Amino acid sequence: MDRVNKRELLIGIAMLGAGLVYLFLTMGLPRKAFIDAAFVPYLLAAGMCVLGALQLLSARRSPEADGDTPAAAKDSADYATVGKTLGLIIGYIALLEWVGFPLATVAYLYLQFIVLTPLSQKVAHGRYLLIAVLASALIYALFRYGFDLMLPAGLLGFIE
Amino acid sequence: MLELLQHGFSAVFSLNIMVLVTLGVAIGIVFGAVPGLTAVMAIALCLPLTFSMGPAAGLSLLVALYIGATSGGLISAILLKIPGTPSSIATTFDGGPMMENGEGAKALGVGVVFSFLGTMFSIAALIFIAPWLAKAALSFGPHEYFGIAIFSLTLIATLSTGSMVKGLFAGVVGFVVSTVGIAPVDAIRRFTFGLPNLNSGFDLLTVLVGMFAISEIIKVAENARHETRATVGGVSMRAIKGFGFSIKELFEQIPNAFRSALIGLGIGILPGIGGGTSNLVAYIAAKKRSKHPEKFGKGCIDGIVAPETANNAGIGGAMIPLLTLGIPGDAVTAILLGGFMIHGIQPGPMLFVSQGELVYTIFAALILATILMLVLEFYGLRIFIKLLAVPKHILLPIIMVLCVVGAFGLSSRIFDVWTIVFFGLLGYGFVKGGIPPAPFIIGFILGPMAETNFRRGLMLSDGSFMGFLTSPISGSFLGLAVAVIVWHLIVVLRGKRSETAEILRA
Question: Which of B30, B188, B233, B489 is most buried, most CB within 10 Å of its CB?
Answer without folding.
Answer: B30
